[in-house]
Amino acid sequence: MNRLYHYLLGYLLLIVPAVLNAQVQLSPLFSDNMVMQQQTDAPIWGTAKPATEITITPSWSKQSYRVKADAYGHWQTKLKTPRAGGPYEIVIKAGTTLRLSNVLIGEVWFCSGQSNMEMPVNGWTQVKNFEQEVANAKYPQIRLLQVEKNTSPQPIDNCKVAGGSWQVCAPENISGFSATAYFFGRDLHQKLDVPIGLIHASWGGTCAEAWTSGKSLQTMPVFSEIMSEIGGIPLEENQRKQVYQSRKAERETLIKAKDFGFKDGTAIAAASNYDDHAWDTMNLPGFWEQSKLPGFDGYVWFRKSIDIPSAWQGKALKLSLGGIDDNEITYFNGVEIGRTDGVSIPRQYTVPAHLVKKGTNIVTVRVADTGGDGGFQGGENEMFVALTDNEKISLSGEWKFKPALSLREAPSSPRIFRDDPNNPTYLFNAMVHPFIPYAIKGAIWYRGEANEGRAYRYRELFPLMINDWRQNWGYDFPFYFVQLANFRSTEPQPTESDWAELREAQAGALHLDNTGMAVTIDIGEAGDVHPRNKQDVGGRLAIIAANKTYGGKAEYSGPMYRSHQIVGNQIRISFSHTEGGLKARDGESLKGFAVAGVDHKYHWAEAVIKGNEIWVSAPEVVFPIAVRYAWANNPVCNLYNGAGLPASPFRTDDWPGVTYGVEY
Prior knowledge:
It is built from twelve helices and 39 strands. The strands form nine sheets. Strands 2, 4, 5, 7, 8, 9, 10, 11, 27, 28 and 29 form an eleven-stranded mixed beta sheet that branches. It has a six-stranded antiparallel beta sheet with strand order 14-26-16-22-19-20, with no helix packed on it. A four-stranded antiparallel beta sheet has the order 21-17-24-25, with no helix packed on it. The longest helix has 22 residues, at 237-258. Mean pLDDT is 94; it is low at 1-21.
């Protein structure tokens, strides 16, 4: 009996590894509930033991496909897919049998970008009518693949997805999915009446170069140096961390040498007796870009004097500042009591008892902002010094402040040696490359804010990224994107704007074949970079796809500037996409136009619709040579066509803007 037992055990130990090694492993792309692109040769791939023969049989065809794993265990073949329909089953045999069920054939779209694409239907910010939208999200022929965030310095083949597989669109699955992607897919499904597959891979606050391959970035001189640096990154994570920490320390030393608030590495601006009488004042909490420092990214010192009662002297206190954008160091009477890196993280520190004295005490905070809004983002009740829960001194209100140095003056960060999602190529490598060459119909894209300060360079970078994706997939699929919405405060007079320059760069990508742009200049929110109206964003993308990709005849774009002609003291502007005529929203007079003369100074213009043209003039400009429309962060503008779609912002001049010459 024992001999037989040992014989059987030994036999099993021999054959089980062989069976496991022969077993096919698939990417989460290939799972139950998946959608495959219709009427194409759709790639399917995986791994198995080298030289293993794999047989794939889809239920929509009597044909079986045979492929053999190579010396590294990789295999790939293509399945000829039928017209839209299903559900089907795919059987994969390689010693064992694997079945993929509830498979649909339809239209597959890759959806990517930063936080406005990432913004879920019901998550960290809810869309309009989110409760109703979630309850109504019952579309069994729409399938969702949510890609988990990941970074890599080199292209990888593996990926992770939420739930480990494709999910059927249902109320229980839609809350955390991209709102823009969902509304695009929903509207497209309703227009086409075919299954829709949505692959969502996005990451808030990330720049375009992170989503572009190294091969393409190497062709841009501005990235040549950093791409060489990335090529030398240690493969081991611990080694990367060591190099990063060393270079970070070197950078901090260089920054402190330029910062007036430090002397020989000591924070003199935090000292109790530091003379700050010449500093300006700012009310906190609040973002400095919305008050005293518009457009400033960099380092700012803040100081506040507080009066400590004698009963508190020599007792430890709790100091709270709320969330800060982005990083900060906090001092009490010249001594550092804490520091935190990261946006929105509540800052709460303990003030050691020996630092607390009766009478005047000084709280100093050095804030570092790496882009976008900077400052104190919590509520007034989050800023205080407290002995107990019932004994507090508010820190909200007037603070003294002084900028130290801008981000442009600071040496660049050695971020490439850590897993920063903004590292060039890192997101392409980990969140795009694993999906190539999965058959897709096209891509939708919603981002741009992270490149606002380098908008002029985006003219080259964005088209390069689009072309890069197409080259990697091997065909020129449709690429439809969202132009930046209106954001921040409105300006009383015509002004320069990095957001306007970024919108111009986005519109320039329309020179690429098979592209389209959804204009959203009318649905943004002044105080929120994440507007809640994602229904119109997804809907406008779906209108573009329905008509440019699927043969519809309806108008898919708002008016686009085509040409202009100077006639005396007026400028005549002609447009494309004037279906149904040019109109002012709500029947009001046209707003948002400005003209300039040879002094390059813009003045608000009177604008009149004449047929499919607009004539503009301003009494201050006798000889106008240029015109702009909606050229601001948050412009007041109202030009539409008869299809109800807004006109894209534009300018006729090519004068250097605020981002001209700003490199990586």
